[in-house]
Specification:
alpha+beta
Length: 135
């Protein structure tokens, strides 16, 4: 009887050790499953659930919601968009032949290395703003 208890304790300690290693390494088994529910549409990552399909008009809103609160990541993801998709979002602007994070007040990161605010021309939802736009 004493041997069986030792054997069960060894198995229990081994299982706990495996869980501890997984936790320390930060392995998350959910990520692999969740990434299967995402669709890629020309730079827009849209989370499409099987029972709640979204049309492309709401895809731009989903894109912005996905990166809300993380301006740096949003800026990186906006740079991957085409000019057309950039102008469909409410969180990106098109300026200097690239798409960057921003809104109606201009790019989020609109200062130069000296801290001066840029007044350069930019497009937000197909409307031109800033210096150099014709009225």
């Amino acid at each position: 009887m004493d041997e069986k208890i030792k054997y069960i304790l060894k198995i229990g300690i081994f299982v706990l050790l495996i869980f501890a290693i997984i936790n320390v390494l930060g392995i998350n088994f959910k990520d692999a499953y969740e990434s299967q529910n995402k669709s890629l549409f020309e730079g827009l990552v849209i989370d499409i659930q099987p029972d709640t399909r979204q049309d492309l008009a709401t895809g731009a809103n989903a894109f912005c919601d996905l990166y809300r609160g993380s301006s740096s990541t949003l800026n990186t993801e906006c740079k991957k968009l085409t000019q057309k998709n950039c102008n469909e979002t409410s969180c990106c602007v098109f300026t200097n032949n690239k798409c960057v994070a921003g809104g109606p007040n201009g790019p989020t990161y609109n200062t130069d290395s000296n801290g001066n605010t840029s007044r350069a021309k930019y497009y937000f939802q197909n409307q031109c703003f800033g210096t150099g736009c014709s009225s």
